C-alpha cells in the first residue's frame, strides 16, 4: 500500500464512519489531475497553492471530519498535500516544496496567511485593513507586513472560519462580530457594507502566552512596591477598578492581578469574548452572547452578573464594564462579593468615577446623583489607571484610593503615580514612578487580613526612573 493510501485509510478510520464523506479521496490515487504532466514547473507558488488547495477541498468533505485540529489529522492531510504537490509540480526545490505544503496546510486547517503572524510570539496585535494591508504591533510599535490575502473573498473565508468556530456568523445582516481564536486571542471582524474597503479584522493576541507579573516588572510597567501593594489589596479583598484607554493593557493587568487571588476561592468571570486566563482551580467562565438574526437570544453582561450572584461566587470579575450592568456590579461589590474586579475605559481615575455614573444611568435606573456616588464610593476601593505612553510603553500611571463622600463629592487620594518628564530622542516617553507620601486609609484593613507592608512603603520618594 502506498503512503498516500495508508494516509487515506487512516483518515477514513479516524472519521469513524464507513461512509465518511472521504471516499472521494480514493480518486486522489488516480494520476489524472490536470496539469500534472510536469509542464507546470514555471507556475508561481501562489497559483500552485491555490490549485492544490482547491483540489484538496474538492476531494475532502471537511464538514464531516470531526477534529481538524488533531495532530494525526494534520499528518494525514499533509500526506495528501505532499502527494498532490508532487503530482502538480515535481520541479520545486526542497525548501519551496516544504513552504508550499505548510501554506496549504495552514490554508486548509488554520487561518491561512494569518498563521505565520499568529506563530510569531513577538506580535501583540494583528490589524487587517482589507486583503492587501496587514499591520502588526511589535513592542508597542505598528508596522506593515508583506503578508497579503489573495482577495477579499479569501479574507472573508478566513473570517468565516474564525467566527464559525465559536458558533457565530458574519454576513450582510450581521456585519460586525466579536470572536476569539482557539488560543484565547480576541477577534473583531467588520465586513461590507459597514467596512468600506474590504473586510477589516482586528486580533488582540495574547492567548497562548499572556504577560505575567515578572514580564510586566521587566517592562517597568510598574515597580515592585506597586506590585506588593496590589498583591496586598487583592488578598485583603479590596474592590478594584482598572481604568484606561483602548489597548493600554487593562485586560493584561486584570489577568496578572487575578493571579494573587487565593487558590481556594470561587471566582466567576464574565466577558464579551473570553480573554482572561486565570490560573486558579475554582473558576467558572461566562461569556455573553449577541442576539441572533431575529433579535433574540442575547445574553448580556448584566444577565450574567445577575445569574452569577446565584452561583455562590466569592469574587466576580467582569472583563469590561460598559453599561447596564454597572449598578448590579457595584451592588455585588457591596454585598458579600468584595474582592471583585473590573476594567473600564477612562483616561484618569476621576474620569473613571464619572464614567461609572454615566454607566449607571445607561442601565435606565433613576437614582439621585448623590445616591449614585454613595454606591460608587462604598463599592470601589481602588482605581488603577493604565496608560499607553508616547512611543509605546504601557504603564500603571496612578494608583488611587477611593475614600468616602464629602457633601456631593467623592474624595480620592493618589498613592503612587508615574510622572512623565519628557520624550527621548527615539520619540519614547520617559519619567519616574513616585510615592506621593499618602498612607492609604485601607492599611488597617490589610493588617487585619494579616498582610504586613514595609514601614516606609508609602514614604514620599522616587521609586524608579524609566
Ligand atoms: N506593560 C506592557 N508592556 C508591553 N506590552 C503590554 C503591556 N501590557 C499589555 N501589553 C500588550 O498590549 C496589548 C494590549 O493589552 P490588553 O489587551 O491588556 O489591553 P486592553 O487595555 O485590555 O485593550 P482593550 O481596550 O482593547 O480591551 C496586548 O497584546 C498585551 O500583551
Ligand atoms: Mg481589554
TrEMBL record:
It holds the Pfam family T2SSE. Residues 1-44 are annotated as: Disordered. This is CpaF family protein. It comes from Limnoglobus roseus. Gene3D superfamilies: 3.30.450.380, P-loop containing nucleotide triphosphate hydrolases (3.40.50.300). One of its GO terms (molecular function) is ATP hydrolysis activity. InterPro entries: P-loop_NTPase (IPR027417), T2SS/T4SS_dom (IPR001482), T4SS_GSP_E_ATPase (IPR050921). SUPFAM superfamilies: P-loop containing nucleoside triphosphate hydrolases. Residues 9-34 have a biased composition (Low complexity). Belongs to the GSP E family. Residues 110-388 form the Bacterial type II secretion system protein E domain.
Amino acid at each position: 500500500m502506498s503512503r498516500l493510501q495508508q494516509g487515506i485509510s487512516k483518515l477514513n478510520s479516524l472519521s469513524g464512519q464507513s461512509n465518511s464523506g472521504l471516499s472521494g479521496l480514493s480518486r486522489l490515487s488516480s494520476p489524472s489531475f490536470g496539469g500534472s504532466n510536469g509542464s507546470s514547473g514555471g507556475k508561481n507558488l501562489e497559483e500552485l497553492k491555490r490549485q492544490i488547495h482547491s483540489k484538496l477541498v474538492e476531494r475532502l468533505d471537511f464538514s464531516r471530519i470531526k477534529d481538524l485540529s488533531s495532530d494525526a489529522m494534520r499528518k494525514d492531510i499533509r500526506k495528501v498535500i505532499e502527494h498532490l504537490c508532487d503530482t502538480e509540480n515535481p520541479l520545486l526545490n526542497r525548501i519551496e516544496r516544504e513552504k508550499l505544503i505548510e501554506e496549504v496546510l495552514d490554508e486548509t486547517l488554520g487561518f491561512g496567511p494569518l498563521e505565520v503572524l499568529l506563530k510569531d510570539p513577538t506580535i501583540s496585535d494583528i490589524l487587517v485593513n482589507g486583503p492587501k494591508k496587514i499591520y502588526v504591533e511589535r513592542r508597542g510599535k505598528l508596522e506593515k507586513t508583506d503578508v497579503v490575502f489573495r482577495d477579499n473573498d479569501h479574507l472573508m473565508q478566513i473570517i468565516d472560519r474564525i467566527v464559525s468556530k465559536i458558533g457565530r456568523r458574519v454576513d450582510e445582516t450581521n456585519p460586525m462580530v466579536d470572536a476569539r481564536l482557539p488560543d484565547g486571542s480576541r477577534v473583531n471582524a467588520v465586513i461590507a457594507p459597514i467596512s468600506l474597503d474590504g473586510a477589516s479584522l482586528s486580533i488582540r493576541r495574547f492567548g497562548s502566552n499572556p504577560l505575567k507579573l515578572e514580564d510586566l516588572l521587566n517592562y517597568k510597567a510598574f515597580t515592585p512596591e506597586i506590585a506588593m501593594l496590589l498583591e496586598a489589596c487583592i488578598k485583603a479583598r479590596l474592590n478594584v477598578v482598572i481604568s484606561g484607554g483602548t489597548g493600554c493593557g487593562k485586560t493584561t493587568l486584570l489577568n496578572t492581578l487575578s493571579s494573587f487571588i487565593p487558590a481556594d476561592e470561587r471566582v466567576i468571570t464574565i466577558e464579551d469574548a473570553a480573554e482572561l486566563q486565570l490560573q486558579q482551580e475554582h473558576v467558572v467562565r461566562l461569556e455573553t452572547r449577541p442576539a441572533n438574526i431575529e433579535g433574540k437570544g442575547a445574553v448580556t453582561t448584566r444577565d450574567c452578573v445577575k445569574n452569577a450572584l446565584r452561583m455562590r461566587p466569592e469574587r466576580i470579575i467582569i472583563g469590561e464594564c460598559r453599561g447596564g450592568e454597572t449598578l448590579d456590579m457595584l451592588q455585588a461589590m457591596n454585598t458579600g462579593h468584595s474582592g471583585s474586579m473590573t476594567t473600564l475605559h477612562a483616561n484618569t481615575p476621576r474620569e473613571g468615577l464619572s464614567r461609572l455614573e454615566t454607566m449607571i444611568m445607561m442601565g435606565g435606573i433613576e437614582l439621585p446623583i448623590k445616591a449614585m456616588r454613595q454606591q460608587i464610593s462604598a463599592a470601589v476601593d481602588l482605581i488603577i489607571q493604565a496608560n499607553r505612553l508616547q512611543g509605546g510603553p504601557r504603564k500603571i500611571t496612578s494608583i488611587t484610593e477611593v475614600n468616602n463622600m464629602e457633601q456631593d463629592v467623592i474624595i480620592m487620594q493618589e498613592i503612587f503615580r508615574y510622572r512623565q518628564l519628557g520624550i527621548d530622542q527615539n520619540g519614547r516617553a520617559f519619567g519616574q514612578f513616585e510615592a506621593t507620601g499618602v498612607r492609604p486609609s485601607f492599611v488597617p484593613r490589610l493588617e487585619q487580613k494579616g498582610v504586613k507592608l514595609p514601614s516606609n512603603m508609602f514614604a514620599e520618594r522616587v521609586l524608579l526612573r524609566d
